[in-house]
Amino acid sequence: MIVGIPKGLLYYKYNPFLFTFFTELGANVVVSEDTNKNILDLGVKHCVDEACLPIKIFHGHVASIKNKCELMVIPRVMQLEKNEYICPKFCGLPEMVLNSIAGMPPAITEPIYAYSKNSLYKWAKTAGKYVTSDIFKIRRAFKCAYEVQSQHRTGINSNQHDIKIALVGHPYNVYDNFSNMNLAAKLDKLGISVETMEFTNDFLINMEINNLYKRPFWTYARENYGFAINAVKEKRFDGIIYISSFNCGIDSIIIELIKDKIGNFPLLILKLDEHTGEAGIDTRIEAFSDMLERRTKHESNIPTNG
Amino acid sequence: MKATFPQMGNIYIAAKALFEGLGIEYVIPPKCSKTDLDIGSLHSPEEICLPFKLMIGNYIHAIEKGADTIILAGSCGPCRFGEYCELQMNLLKSMGYNMNFIVIDYPKDIGMMELYRRIHKISSESKKNTIQKINALLNALKVLNLMDEIEETAHMYAGFERNKGECKNLLIECKKDTLECDNAYSMIKIMNQYNQKLNHLSVDINKNPLKIAIIGEIYTIIEPYSNFYIEEKLMDYGVSSSRKLTPSWWVKNAALSPLKINSLKIRKNAKKYIPIGIGGHAVECIGEAVTASKNGFDGAIQILPMGCMPEIVSKAVLPTISKDLDFPVMSLIVDDMDGEAGYITRMEAFIDLLERRRKNALSGC
């Protein structure tokens, strides 16, 4: 059995789990290539126009490996934490993919509730049945995959420069180097260090959330908001860069909430879409880095308001 | 306290009945208009959906009339509507208005006590006794159900009427007259009269008008301004239309959803295409499309605001339904650019298509 895993959306965070689970079950795993122009074009061709860039890219990944595998994994991630969701499009992802791309192989579309080991095992049990009927094998594979995943760490934390920014955004925008046009490397070249959300304690994130009237019910909204506000408070950073995709429903709210809280702290919002205009992104991050440099080098002791 | 609430279709009529019954001062914001949208788009975040922008306009108008408390329904589903309250509070604060917000959320998300506390904030303003309060609530529900019933009948009869424009006029007059009443009982009386009139309308049952189902995101299909009065226009064309998502449906759905016996038919029909709820009204949209095709409708129009997350999923599914059931569906995306002509053209083209399909079917091609 050849199992296809598309390299899109939450793959960047949870790839060890999926990969280990299916290889341990004895399946051959085909993972799509890193995102590239070809995959983006495929995605734009197959997906509904209104969807956001990450969803389109996911469609592209699926389309690029649909003929190479006998079973496609479409992770319908419903919840990562209790009472929290990701985005409605994640809940309806299999529907979007299966109805938009013709000639699909059978797909695993069971909902994933990943807030506890038990609830995740439920998914593994049904998903594993597609490959093998041996329940012990499934359990072993699941244990192994869970182990590997819990040891897996993502995140960027570089410290070699004087200026440091907090890089905020959904994992699929932060870690997909094609869609964000190698942002981390570009910032490094400009003399800016980067830190992502994974290095801030959950406790500190939740502390900021408690100041809101209503607790956000999106996992990444909670994390991004908490991280950004904490970054401003702790004064470890000189600025924030928020990578968002065009027409992202969650970011349209979270960015507003962040803006509302941080006052005039430097914040750059980069919107990604399928038009690969790299020069535009370059200009904006260069201008932002110039501004940060001026602030830290020349104006650190002088109040800007005279 | 002077309460207000966002405009959303017929809800203002029920709210009027409720506040009159409770004896609480209230302001009905003027009907959604271009100014609402302009104010909203000026102050709201750029990428937020259309309902948010219109609501901001409603609030500003209500505040100008003296409102100081905003009552808003909430949700904790994955759709953006649940986060409206937080943003709107911040936004109004930054504009210099100090408003009270009372958000009515589902008890499973905020706890029964908190819900009770929030409702108490409203009911403590009323000097009526408990029985009168419950009566007021029941009357408001009755008003809501009646209004939706009248509207549904008028939309359906519009295709069959002998005197053109009669349904539309009756509906408009009914709303106008109801709004002039000062208590729920006279509202119900007047609405019953109009209901009678509608049911005794001279209709031609031999006519076989086009039947179109209106499906999609609840706000944009209920609030006529946001969809360029599509239902009134369909009535003008002599097309019968049907829309199952109404405020009274919403109330019933919310009340029954803890027991999971809400909208069984819709969920059953949608099951093949969307097996689980994904938030918003995506399942309802799909279920409605399937139901409409089974009920012999000629086509369906899906209306969604730009960037609506659940409806994007259903928009991806609708072409499959259309193919499977040989049922034309058109999606109209509304945003804050008011290009009415564009929408009208598409609607007319869709009606033409449906008519041509019928003719061809009859001639046997």
Oligomer: heterodimer
User: How much strand of chain B?
Assistant: 5-15%
Q: How big a fraction of the residues of chain A is strand? A: 5-15%
Q: For the largest sheet of chain A, list the strands in their spatial order.
A: 2-1-3-5
Biggest sheet layout of chain B? 4 strands, parallel
Supply the number of helical segments of chain A. Answer: 13
Order of helices and strands of chain B: EHEHHEHEHHHHHEHHEHHHEHEH
| Mean pLDDT, all residues of chain A | 90
Top keywords for this entry?
heterodimer, A: 4-stranded parallel β-sheet, 15% strand, globular, B: alpha/beta, 10% strand
Written description of the protein model:
The complex is a heterodimer of chains A (306) and B (365). Chain A is α/β, with parallel strands linked by helices. In chain A, α10 crosses α11. Chain A is globular and about 70 Å long. The model of chain A has no long low-confidence stretch (mean pLDDT 90). In chain A, α12 links the parallel β9 and β10. Chain A has 13 helices and 10 strands. In chain B, the strands form 2 sheets. Chain B has a 4-stranded parallel β-sheet, sandwiched between helices. A 4-stranded parallel β-sheet of chain B has the order 6-5-7-8, sandwiched between helices.
How would you summarize what this structure contains?
Chain A has helices at residues 11-24, 37-46, 53-65, 88-91, 93-100, 117-129, 135-151, 171-174, 183-189, 202-209, 219-234, 249-262, 278-297; strands spanning 2-5, 28-31, 71-73, 76-79, 107-108, 111-113, 163-169, 192-196, 239-245, 267-272. Chain A is of the alpha/beta class.
